[in-house]
Amino acid sequence: MNMTTRVVLRHFLLKTRNEISNTKVAQIDPFFQSFFTQNELKNILCSIYDAKALKELKLGAMSKAELLETIGDDTLILGYFLDLWDEEICQNASITAKGVCAVLDQLGLQSHYLRFKQISEWDSYDLNNYRSLQVKAGKICRVYGIYDAGTQQEEINSVTSPPKRFYESPDLADIAMKELINERQFQENDLHILSLIAGR
User: Fold this and answer.
1) I need a surface site. Which of 40, 51, 99, 194 has the fewest CB within 10 A?
2) What pLDDT was estimated at residue 5?
3) Contact at 8 Å (CB) between 186 and 180?
């Protein structure tokens, strides 16, 4: 899924969740009656309730129907999966030993040198090599944003107001930047395009 599709879908999912949560009647869509496993329903409930409430609920003794009834609202299911999506994006962009092994396993690179090298010992070559492997595995992608001309590439992660939208290619970002300039919202020297890594 490309970056634009992901952002648009996420926007509408969040909007839909808000609209559903503003309705008076909480309900579970019939689609979910036989969709989730018992463990998945328990995981959803674990994200909703604190430890004390979970102990009182006695999830282990509940049937799938009782678990669904306890969830009781589609917005809670949607919220749970939006949170999982956020976690997955963060995990894909971060670098952990477990993540490195997962990427290398996915690509069939069981004997790749990065599997055996401590992450704390990686240099820029190792990092770039791993990022290329993550792109190949579909875990991350390089995206392009339109930034104020005063923002430098090395400052990109500390920008307090990042662009509203990122583009899949520098060409798309360039077209959007030229539109902003043509609409006279900015002068030609006010903006430039920078790239960054984003989790998928």
Assistant:
1) 51
2) 83
3) yes
Cβ atoms of 164 and 1 closer than 8 Å: no
For residues 127 and 135, give the distance between their C-alpha atoms in angstroms, rounded to a whole number.
Answer: 12
CA distances from 136 to 118, 123, 129, 196 (A): 22, 20, 11, 16
Residue 141's pLDDT band (cuts 50, 70, 90) = confident
Which pTM does this prediction carry? 0.63
